[in-house]
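Reopening this ticket.

The earlier resolution said the output was attached, but the attachment link was broken on my side. Pasting everything inline this time so it's all in one place.
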Amino acid sequence: MVLLLVLGLGLQGCAGIYSVVEFEVLEPATVSFPDQVSQLLILNRAPLSFNVFSEEDREGMNKRQLLILDTLISNNINRGLLHVLKQSPIERFHMPIWLDERRGDTALMEDLVLTKREVAAMCDYMSGDAVISLEFYSMDLDSNYDYYTDAPVVQNHYYQVSNMVKWFIYLPGNPRPFDKYSMADTLYFPDIIDGQVMESATTLQMIRESFFKSGIKYGRYLVPVWIQASRSLYKGKEDSLRRASKLTDRGEWEQALSIWENLAAAEDSTLVSKALNNMAVYYELEDNLDTASILVNQALEYDSLEIVRFYREELDTRLENRKEVINQVKY
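Inline output:
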């Protein structure tokens, strides 16, 4: 199974010493669902209440405004979550079923959880295997000013949107939640920077973006996602390294590999370390992490170059994640 997606094999020069190749790798989810979980049910149980807003924000708010804000918040949490689920390699999670009829469950008791019987009945009725429940959200809007020290004039002004979300995962047959997740986040939206007035977002746009990002973060908690990675290839002053670099610029990696293999037999230990590093990158791009790991270790034996040491740490992370990623995307 290929767990790596190359974005572009054209390399960008960095001060003539090395080049950078960028690609994407799968990062495992924090949650690992049991193998039998296929159909997700997304349930909104967050209280429909004025109390989820700060006292200052809810002052003068009427029922209609509460419904508008709740719809905006709920829709954008779900939009962010669905955005991640649809991009996940776990295709069975691409189309969850959305439920919204349990809004009163948590209105009076903050920690009231779904019972084992309720979860089983919901999953049986909707043909679901797990219930992902938004249990609670809250929001606070604030505004901050910085003034110049030598004059009573605004230097910086920004709006601050803080939110908190709480999610539970329920599985049929389990008497308690399978997983609990809480996250607090704050976004800043400047409209004056160093005395200059900037184009600013509306309040609704700020709320929309804040909760959309909260949905994305929870999605990344649930499913493995592609993240951008980069690796360094040595060019240096040696003619063969420069020639290999030109080959990789053209996408001719096999020819470049032959050059690096020849350089790995050189007498210059630093040159050998650079060649082995480049060979390791080649094999990582081929998703052969074990060979890449061996080559990095050999490179460090010849010369503990900073780039190679850093590469060792990055590769260790991929190796640690490999088994978990494979288990999460195997079906």
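Reporter confirms the inline version is readable. The longest helix spans residues 63-87. The beta strands are 4-14, 18-27, 40-44, 97-99, 130-147, 154-170, 179-193, 196-197, 225-234.
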